[in-house]
Write a structure and sequence with these properties.
The protein has 20 helices and 17 strands. It has 1031 residues and is α+β, with helices and mostly antiparallel strands. Among the domains are: 167 residues, Alpha-Beta Plaits (2-Layer Sandwich), CATH 3.30.70.1620; 156 residues, P-loop containing nucleotide triphosphate hydrolases (Rossmann fold, 3-Layer(aba) Sandwich), CATH 3.40.50. Strand 7, helix 11 and strand 8 form a beta-alpha-beta unit. The relative contact order is 0.13.
């Protein structure tokens, strides 16, 4: 659009578009006028032909109307008499049918009542079965609880025996410990006496030496005493080490703590307990799944029973409906076989077709068409439905002679080799197809049911009849094409002369066509219902079989649930027993571990004492060596004095170790006494705990006995109730069998009554069909009198001439037929054809002149448009080349480098071509405008604007923030370029960029110092620059 404005070709394009619009309108007008001219050309010749037949038609029509009125009145009177006779028989049969209806209803009510009682008993049986299931579950739970209680009692008894054995063991151990303690006390007393004797003897020896006055001897004595004390201490320590090592070996050698069988048993018991817990969880989950499956299967069983009930009702309804439709179908088939609904003569020919060689059949029996066209075809054929088709004129002549000879009435024959076929020209058919609601030509919408080629008869009867959907569309077609008979789907008619026939038709006139159509519809319904009935029966059987399978599955699930419940109860008992066993082993293991801990702690303590004793022994040995050295020194100094005390010292050296040994033994005995007393306290504590547990077990045993008694009482009551319900279930099952037999017997009675009622209904249907046929025949004739002649039956019978007998009616029918044949030979006529022909000719001449004017105008417009196209191409090409050259030069100036060019997308089609901008900013590759950044695209667009202004300057240009996306350097370059063009073009720039404002000659701004009050300010930068001497 920008390049077109720059080239000055936009105005030319707009002129071309306006010319194209005018050309399109001219072309549309030409098409419309051509259609009208062709349509009028097709009407001129037929109108001329119709006008010559109008007078002949009026003469034949007058004779036809007179004799048709008399014939219709006589036939109505005769048909009414036949109807009265049939009505009497129908009334008698209706009374019988009412009686049979009452009997059928009574038998069906009895069956329904019995079925309701049967269902009540079945529901009660299901309820009893559910209660039995619950009681069975309760019995299973009680048996499990009893078994669990018994096993718990046995386990408690075993535990009590074990606890009692442990108490006895502890008692024996206490006796042994007390005896050992007494022995230790006796040994301790004996050692104390012996120690006292030795100490007394030592004191005596020491007294002998104390009388020595010499100081040196005193020091020696002190040193010797210290040495002896060290020897005693060393001996005591040695004895302690020996005793401690002995005790350590004994403790380590004690086999009681070598292996822990209890821990192993506890591990195995815990594993068994976990196994039972897992098994219980799995069984519980399995029972949950089974319960879910049982509930779902039970719901499925109920749903199946409900589906069976509903489907059984559907099957019964379908059976009843099918029987009614079959009865109606059979009645109509009988009517069709007897050819009821046909005239007397036609019926005689059809009933004795072998006596009439060459007769193919009646039109009503040989044609078929869609059901939606029934009313239209019935109206279109009219009395022609009674016509008989023959293979030749000779066959028709022979058939007429045979009817005369046998006095079998009259009939109209259509010889295939002598009929005039009516068709509508293809051009007219093409025109008809353009109208809304057009369905087709009647002859094209029917099909033949015979192997004979009866196209001639079909064209004769329906070749000039047009079928449309509504009276409105029929009127629209008649206004354009009024030469043919137009019939709607509702049976309304627009005749060629302009007359219109329509209104409410009798819905049950039982014409041959309607009978055949209804038979076809009933056959389709029977086929559909039979298929549906069989499918429903098969589905019902499948549902019953499925219900049996579901009930079987339900029983299997019930048995499986009982088995799982039994297993769960057994597992629960085993689990409880195993829990008690684990608890017992845990207590035993705790006791064992406590003893092991005490023993280990004792061993550690002994090892510590041994280490301390060894350290002390080493220290004493060192001190002894020092004392001995000191004594040797003193002895050397008191050599003489030593001889005196040698004997005493010898004896003391013997006594001191003995005294030290006795002291060590006493200390060991004290330690052992303390240990035994601790063991006695522990055993007494364990015995007390076991006695408490025994008391708790005895108390639990009493509660268990009471609980077992309660459970046994509950079990007895549930068993009694279970037996009662089982007896009730047996009674209900017996009643169901009896009711089933009674229902079958009642079904047979109901079926027999229904068959009788069906026969009566079929007979009543036959009567109804006959009466309906008579009513239809009467209505058809009354309708004809009313619609065609505007007469009532009374007026028509009053105008009729002659006696109403068969001979008179045959004569009138023959005369009517002759008149109709004459009219049919004439064919469709248009009484207004002469005036219509003149009007059409005048309009045809006028439209020819209009057509020539439009052709000349179209040629002139096409020539002008070609001239405009050449001018646009020339100007656009010149402008594009100039702008492209300018753009190529300006781009490196604006960008400070780079290059760019403009290319045509379609150089060979300058009227429709587009323009592609390809640019290469400095430092980048050559690429299309869409691939550039936002700032680069903006600056490229500005460059293109400068190129256009250079080629085609404009006096005034408004720029609205076009440089907003540019950086400061490009903004400055942009503003400087504006200055280069301001000599030829005045620029008004809306901007917020400082670089652009600096280059402006005049600045304008809007401020608002007060609310709602704005003020415009302006600054002339050019004047300020001149004043300040700035360039």
């Amino acid at each position: 659009m920008i390049f077109e404005e720059a080239a000055g070709v936009l105005h030319f394009k707009q002129q071309k578009e306006a010319a194209q619009g005018q050309l399109k309108k001219t072309q549309d007008n030409l098409i419309r006028i051509n259609d009208l001219v062709k349509e009028l050309e097709g009407r001129l010749e037929p109108l001329h032909e119709q006008s010559s037949l109008a007078k002949e038609y009026k003469f034949q029509k007058a004779g036809l109307d007179k004799e048709s009125k008399s014939l219709l009145a006589f036939e109505i009177e005769d048909i009414n008499k036949q109807k009265e006779d049939v009505q009497k028989s129908a009334d008698k049969n209706k009374i019988l049918l009412s009686k049979l209806d009452a009997e059928v209803k009574e038998s069906q009510d009895a069956v329904s009542k019995k079925r309701a009682e049967y269902q009540e008993i079945r529901d009660e049986r299901e309820k009893v079965q559910n209660e039995l299931l619950k009681l069975g579950q309760q019995l299973s739970d009680l048996n499990a609880n009893l078994q669990m209680a018994e096993q718990s009692r046995q386990f408690d008894d075993a535990t009590k025996i074990e606890y009692q054995n442990q108490v006895e063991t502890l008692k024996k151990s206490l006796v042994e410990l007390n005896a050992h303690l007494d022995n230790l006390q006796k040994d301790q007393a004996s050692l104390k006496k012996q120690q006292a004797v030795l100490q007394k003897k030592r004191d005596k020896l020491t007294g002998e030496l104390s009388e020595n006055p010499e100081e040196l001897n005193k020091k020696l004595e002190d040193c010797r005493n210290d040495y002896i004390q060290l020897l005693q201490d060393q001996a005591a320590v040695n004895n302690q080490v020996i005793n401690l090592n002995t005790e350590l070996k004994r403790s380590k050698a004690d086999t009681t703590y070598q292996s822990n069988d209890v821990a192993k048993q506890l591990t195995e018991a815990k594993a068994e307990l976990e196994k039972l817990r897992t098994e219980g969880k799995n069984l519980t989950a399995k029972r949950k799944d089974k319960n879910t499956a049982f509930a779902e299967t039970n719901d499925q069983s109920k749903e199946l029973n409900e589906q069976i009930r509903r489907l059984q009702e559907t099957v019964n309804d379908e059976r009843n409906k099918l029987e009614k439709i079959e009865a109606r179908h059979e009645a109509l088939i009988n009517i069709q076989k007897r050819h009821e609904g046909y005239y007397y003569g036609v019926r005689n020919v059809l009933n004795h077709l072998s006596d009439f060689p060459g007769v193919i059949g009646a039109v009503g029996e040989l044609l078929t068409f869609p059901a939606e066209l029934e009313a239209a075809m019935t109206t279109a054929l009219g009395g022609g439905v009674q016509d008989l088709i023959t293979d030749s004129r000779n066959s028709a002549k022979n058939a007429i002679n045979q009817l005369k000879r046998s006095r079998a009435g009259r009939a109209t024959f259509l010889p295939l080799d002598g009929l005039r076929q009516y068709t509508i020209p293809q051009s007219t058919v093409t025109t008809l197809k353009s109208f809304n609601g057009f369905k087709g030509i009647a002859s094209d919408l029917v099909e033949s049911k015979t192997d004979h080629n009866i196209t001639a008869a079909i064209n004769y009867l329906l070749g000039s009849v047009v079928i449309v959907d509504s009276i409105e569309n029929a009127m629209a077609i008649s206004q354009r094409i009024g030469r043919y008979r137009i019939v709607t789907l509702d049976g309304d008619v627009v005749s060629p002369g302009g007359s219109m026939t329509g209104g409410q038709k009798n819905l049950r006139n039982n014409s041959p066509l309607q009978t055949a159509t209804e038979i076809n519809q009933l056959e389709q319904q029977i086929k559909s219902l039979t298929s549906s009935f069989k499918e429903d029966q098969a589905q019902l059987k499948a549902l019953v079989d499925q219900s049996v399978e579901v009930d079987k599955k339900l029983q299997e699930l019930h048995d499986s649930l009982q088995e799982i419940n039994q297993t769960i109860n057994e597992t629960a008992i085993s689990f409880q027993n195993q829990e008690k066993e684990v608890k017992r082993l845990q207590d035993a293991n705790t006791l064992y571990e406590s003893r092991v801990k005490e023993r280990n702690d004792h061993i550690v303590e002994l090892q510590k004492q041994i280490a301390d004793a060894n350290d002390k022994q080493t220290l004493l040995s060192k001190q002894g060596e020092e004392k001995k050295s000191r004594m040797n020194e003193l002895q050397s100094r008191i050599k003489n004095f030593n001889n005196l005390s040698k004997r005493v010292q010898s004896e003391l050296s013997k006594l001191d170790p003995q005294i030290a040994v006795f002291a060590n033994k006493l200390e060991n005995l004290t330690v052992q006494e303390k240990d035994k007393r601790n063991q006695i306290d522990n055993n007494q504590k364990q015995a007390a705990d076991l006695k408490e547990k025994l008391a708790s077990l005895n108390q639990n045993g009493e509660l268990s006995v009471k609980k077992n008694a309660d459970l046994k009482n509950q079990k007895t009551k549930i068993k009694q109730k279970h037996e009662e319900l089982q007896n009730r279930l047996n009674e209900l099952s017996l009643q169901l069998g009896q009711f089933d037999a009674q229902i079958n017997q009642l079904d047979q009675v109901a079926s027999r009554n229904y068959d009788l009622r069906k026969d009566a209904a079929i007979e009543q249907e036959d009567y109804s069909v006959k009466i309906a046929k008579f009513n239809s025949l009467i209505d058809q004739r009354l309708e004809t009198l009313r619609d065609d002649y505007a007469l009532t039956f009374e007026a028509a019978i009053a105008q009729a001439e002659g006696k109403n007998d068969q001979e008179t009616r045959d004569k009138l029918a023959k005369s009517v037929k002759l008149h109709r044949m004459s009219i049919e030979d004439i064919g469709p006529v248009n009484l207004d054809s002469i005036q219509e022909y003149e009007d059409v000719k005048k309009r045809y001449d006028f439209l020819n002149g209009q057509q020539n004017d439009l052709l000349k105008a179209r040629d002139d417009l096409e020539k002008s448009m070609n001239e405009l196209d050449e001018e646009v191409k020339s100007r656009f090409k010149a402008t594009f080349e100039a702008v492209a050259e300018s753009f190529k030069k300006i781009f490196p100036l604006v960008f400070g480098g780079g290059k760019a060019k403009l290319e045509l997308t379609e150089p060979n089609n300058l009227l429709e071509t587009g323009i592609e901008i390809i640019a290469q900013p400095p430092g980048k590759k050559l690429q299309r405008l869409s691939l550039l950044s936002g700032g680069e695209r903006a600056l490229t667009a500005i460059t293109l604007l400068f190129a256009m202004l250079q080629v085609n300057p404009v006096p005034f240009c408004l720029l609205d923030e076009v440089e907003a996306a540019l950086d400061d350097a490009n903004v400055t370059r942009f503003a400087q370029f504006l200055l280069k063009y301001d000599l030829k073009t005045q620029f008004i720039v809306i901007t917020h960029r400082r670089g652009t404002m600096k280059q402006a000659d005049q600045l304008y701004g809007v401020v608002m110092q007060e609310s709602g009050v704005s003020q415009v300010l302006s600054v002339s930068l050019k004047e300020m620059k001149n004043k300040n001497g700035v360039k």
